[in-house]
Amino acid sequence: MAQITQAQRSERIKGLLDELNKVPPERHEVERLPWAGREPLLCSVIKIPVDEVLLNHQSHRVRSQLEGDPQWRELQNDPHSEAAQRVIEQHVRAARKPDQFAALKDSLRREDQTHPGVVTHDGVLVNANTRAVALRELEDPSLHYIRVAVLPPTAQPEELALLELRLQMQKELKVEYTLTNELLFIEELSSERKLTNAQIARELRIFLENERKGENEVSLRLRMLDLVREMQRIPNELLPLTFFDRFAYEQLRELHRTYDALLERDRNEARRYLESFLLSVAVDVTPVHQVRKIDASFMHEYMLPQLEEDEVIGAVAGRLSAPDGKDSAPPPAGAGSLLTEEDDEPHPVDIKRLIDVVTRRDNRVEIPGTPVVVVSRDNVREAIKEAVIAGIKEKRRDEKESDKVEAPVTNVKAADREVLKAMAAVKAVVNDPDFDQKRRKSLESAYHKLKRNVRDLKTELTKAKVIGE
User: Fold this and answer.
1) Residue 173's pLDDT is what?
2) Which residues contact 228 (CB under 8 A, 6 or more apart)?
3) What is residue 174's predicted lDDT score, i.e. its pLDDT?
4) How far is residue 184's CA from residue 166's CA, in Å, rounded to a whole number?
5) Which terminal residue of the chain has fewer beta carbons within 10 Å of its beta carbon, N or C?
């Protein structure tokens, strides 16, 4: 079916509203919408063919998906065209898992529409985009209609954005916004709609019990979006925003906190840490307990030795990961004396180069410095993933061994601190009437036990020749 024109669409909606107004008001279906003011907005509900409404390209459920779609860049200036609407439809459908989308279609087939969507006076959906796509796919043509509450022509973009957010916050069976779409929504509310951080926090129901915490959280999420955009630009091929939906909020929060702290101390170290984190996530090492082990030196100290053992990639790992394609194998004996003071390590891993390889669209990877050696990007990605995981295990073993040999010193120092605390506590209560005979006897018993344990510790230290007889 050919798409109707904008004028035809507006006239169609006006005609349906006029027909509705011919019947008694008590027979009108009216929807109460959470509007910008305190009072709800009452809007008449019409039933219109689902092919006659437009999917909303500004819906915050698909904003980041559209931003990363090369097709959309050519169509975004005319979002209501048939071609643009087909691209939006693809992303609206893909925003739900296949089983979720199938369940929605089944529900609409069996129970029809329980609540109306919302549409502008000229036919652009504010919400219910997924419902519209699902209705269009139903086999029964009698179900190819959508119930929508019609907004007045005076509705402004700021009011539409807040309405979408408030409808989303009502939840019910709605799918959550993805991380990047929510961050984009917060940015829009701040920069385009001019809401304060406190207002945004209230709309998103963030720390409603503490306004200051809510403001700070919104401010943090805006900085987190800045960090995401910085990571987008690290590879030569810009990463789509949707790439970062594999992050959890807490994971991104921890990344931001660590990166920010490193920036204060050493910008180069901060950059290596950020790239190392991004490389790990790019090869699908995402569990929080694993990526917490990633630091600025991890790729050279732990990942690369593991990668060099890989059956497929190992032989070219050095050239693949070294700056300018130079072999990153350790230098020959005596070469260390030739290094300048600025050389932190003989051949550090070029983490950005590896990120470029594993995130590129082309599956063919030419190895620099070799006569046409080509490997598969997917093989490199899998090899780096295994190397990162194995490196994390190795680092954990090293840390356990380090903890083991440091434990005696650490524990004696801790005991010393506790003894000093005990001395201060005794001085504080020695003249207190509540420090009675019963408590004094308990303290005496504890002291004698401590004395015996110190004696036993002295025996062990003597045996180990840590102290003299």
Assistant:
1) 41
2) 180, 183, 241, 244, 252
3) 54
4) 16
5) C
